[in-house]
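Notes taken during the Thursday session

The instructor put the following on the board and asked us to keep it in front of us for the whole hour. The protein is ATP synthase subunit 9, mitochondrial. We were told not to look anything up and to reason only from what is written here. First, the residues (76 in total):
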Amino acid sequence: MNITLQSAKMIGAGLATIGLTGVGAGVGIVFGSLVMAYARNPSLKQQLFSYTILGFALTEAVALFALMMAFLIMFT
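Then, after some discussion, the predicted structure tokens were revealed:
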């Protein structure tokens, strides 16, 4: 394989993982919001936790897509 093509693939894979920074911030926001909402109304604990898990799963899906793109770029 050409060395320039290989280096371009590595740069592209690195750029594809930039989305992971947003995911880290998103997870922090989701759980920070859970703490604030629970502090305001503890009686809604179960419903708040259900919404938090849903938000966490959707946020982590973005991370999986970013990693999948990075691996597709590197290994194809």
